[in-house]
Amino acid sequence: MSPIDLRVAIVGGGICGLTCAVGLAKQGISVQIYEAAAKFGEVGAGVGIGPNAVRILRELGVLDDVLSRAEDTGCNISMFRFISGMEGHEWIYDYTAGPEDESRGVHRAAYLDALVSHIDPKMAHFNKRCTSISASTDGHNIIHFSDGSTADADIILGADGLKSAVRGVVTGTATSSVKFSGGICYRGLVPTTEMRAAGVKLDLDTRPACFVGKDKHLIVFPIRGGQIINVVAFVTNRDVPIGEAVLPPGEATVVSVPQKEVLDAYEGWGSDVLGLLGCIHNPTKWNINVVYPHLETYVNGRIALLGDAAHGMMTHLGAGAGQGLEDVYLLVKLISHPQTASYNIETVLQVYDEVRRPRSQNVWEQTLQAGDVYEGCGPHGYSFEGLRQDLTGIWDYVWGHGVEDDVRDAVRRLENLGVYHSM
Ligand SMILES: Cc1cc2nc3c(=O)[nH]c(=O)nc-3n(C[C@H](O)[C@H](O)[C@H](O)COP(=O)(O)OP(=O)(O)OC[C@H]3O[C@@H](n4cnc5c(N)ncnc54)[C@H](O)[C@@H]3O)c2cc1C
Questions:
Q1: Is 165 near ligand 1, meaning CB less than 6 Å away?
Q2: Which of 179, 311, 364, 365 has the most CB atoms less than 10 A away?
Q3: Residues 223, 132 share a domain
Q4: Residue 105 CB–ligand 1 contact under 6 Å
Q5: Do the domain assignments include residue 422?
Q6: In this structure, what CATH number is given to the domain that contains residue 383?
Q7: Is the distance from CB of 133 to CB of 169 less than 8 angstroms?
Q8: Could you tell me the keywords of this UniProt record (predicted)?
Q9: Is the peptide bond before 293 cis (omega within 30 degrees of 0)?
Q10: Does the beta carbon of 321 lie inside 6 Å of ligand 1?
Q11: Residue 421 CB neighbours (<10 A)
């Protein structure tokens, strides 16, 4: 059996599952996607695609489509400004990546639409909520869905997000790995014209910004060619140590809140921050959950996790989707490798785990620390000079990763194991 004969089932059609499906299908691999919802969909918000992720989308042949759907006119989010959230909005620090480090802010729905345009509708199955996975006698995996139906495949990829059903099958434990981080954020999209009319003076439509302050910060970046400003305003309760709290049963991850709640949370902050928040008419509040403690494996036999299902993390480096895309790229390259076949696929997936788990979990740790820095709890404290020290190079590890680095590492490991032969 050559890789072309391996049948892959992807559980979950979010950013990572869909990108993985497109990448594998482009390599001629048979893929089916099983999505719990009635259609592919994303929240109405922006997502930052860092240089590492931009390189992957380019290699997978979907970057131009994503940018054109997103009406992207070239705002590079790697030019991040850090500004005091307090009145006066003093400049603190500029993070400027190299010219080759292109990154983008895009509307999530536009991203998904671009991906969907590459999907053969016959590959997509909706209203298919995975509840469990079992093994058949001939070595296939069988996915069970809540409607009583089943599907089988040679490889199952769990891209079913933070509340993953596949995760428990991989880790072999019924205990939930999803924890409440103690952080919440308010999200909204603001038309640039309205922001200007509200008297906001800083130019937030050409470059991204992070407004820093004690126990709170805002991430702001333009999407849709600068016509819309994506706003995410964080509030952290540090009395809740990470990993020790879970949301009470029944408490929703996302709720609509009155605008007053957002303005009250930022009482005493500077006029541009309050002006911007005052333009969010229908804010949503997000309880930020993470996967913690770190999983000991992302793979069990022929079942592998990717994206938030494997390493749902804090949002502070805008790295979660990017880490998922790094998983995707390695999976696509390994599953479609000419020396991958049915008899060695389990070792190939094991090597995927060995390569991707340490890096994605390191990024997880760095995103947590970044939140501390932005909110005055970093190693050098809350002075502007202390912040500058802690902000220097803050994205280097995340963004500096070459698209082929993991592939080279994995292929070398497989050659050392005698699974692949050097060509
Ligand atoms: C406020 C905020 C801001 C963020 N900003 C950024 C950013 O700027 N840059 C960045 O890189 N990341 C960012 N992230 C993180 C990023 O959004 C996630 O890492 C990314 O969306 C994860 O994609 P995913 O495909 O793994 O999971 P999801 O997007 O959660 O998709 C999972 C899919 O699986 C489906 N599903 C769930 N359960 C089942 C089941 N049992 N059976 C079948 N289907 C199922 C769901 O319906 C969904 O379609 C941010 C996150 C938040 C909360």
A1: yes
A2: 311
A3: no
A4: no
A5: no
A6: 3.50.50.60
A7: yes
A8: FAD, Flavoprotein, Oxidoreductase
A9: yes
A10: yes
A11: 8
Judge whether 421 lies within some domain: no
Domain closes at, from 269, 290, 311 = 290
Q: Is the CB of 213 under 6 A from ligand 1?
A: no
CB-ligand 1 contact for 220 (6 Å cutoff)? no
The tally of domains found in the chain comes to 2
Alpha carbon of 195 to ligand 1 centroid (Å): 28
Q: Residues 6 or more apart from 406 whose CB is under 8 A from it?
A: 326, 329, 330, 355, 356, 359
Nearest CA owner, ligand 1 atom 48? 14
Which residue's CA is minimally distant from atom 26 of ligand 1? Answer: 307
What pLDDT digit, counting tens, does each position of 184-233 carry?
A: 999 999 999 999 999 999 999 988 999 999 999 999 999 888 899 999 99
CA–centroid distance, residue 12 to ligand 1 (Å)? 9
Mean pLDDT, residues 15-21 taken together: 97
Cα 411 from Cα 284, distance rounded (Å): 44
Average pLDDT over residues 243-256: 87
Convert the pLDDT of each residue in 274-303 to its tens digit: 999 999 999 999 999 999 999 999 999 999
Asked whether the predicted pLDDT for residue 73 surpasses 70, the reply is: no
Pocket test for ligand 1, best of 160, 218, 219 (most atoms within 8 A of CB): 160
Q: Are residues 167 and 279 in the same domain?
A: no
Please answer whether residues 262 and 277 qualify as being in contact, where contact means their C-beta atoms are separated by less than 8 angstroms.
yes
Alpha-helix residue ranges (DSSP H) falling in 216-319: 259-265, 271-277, 308-311
Question: Are residues 66 and 167 located together in one domain of the fold?
Answer: yes
CB atoms within 10 A of CB 392: 10
- Phi first, then psi: what are they for 289, rounded to 5°? -100, 155
Q: Do 369 and 378 touch, CB atoms closer than 8 A?
A: yes
* Residue minimizing CA distance to atom 2 of ligand 1: 315
Domain boundary among 290, 313, 348: 290
Ligand 1 neighbourhood includes 158 CB (under 6 angstroms): no
Domain extent, residue 281, equals 178-290
Tell whether ligand 1 has an atom less than 6 A from the beta carbon of residue 326.
no
Assess whether 331 and 244 both reside in one domain: no
Q: What is the pLDDT of residues 300-329, one digit of tens each?
A: 999 999 999 999 999 999 999 999 999 999
The reply to whether ligand 1 has any atom less than 6 angstroms from the CB of 320 is: yes
211 φψ region: left (φ > 0), alpha (ψ -120 to 50), beta (else): beta
Atom of ligand 1 nearest to the CA of 221: 8
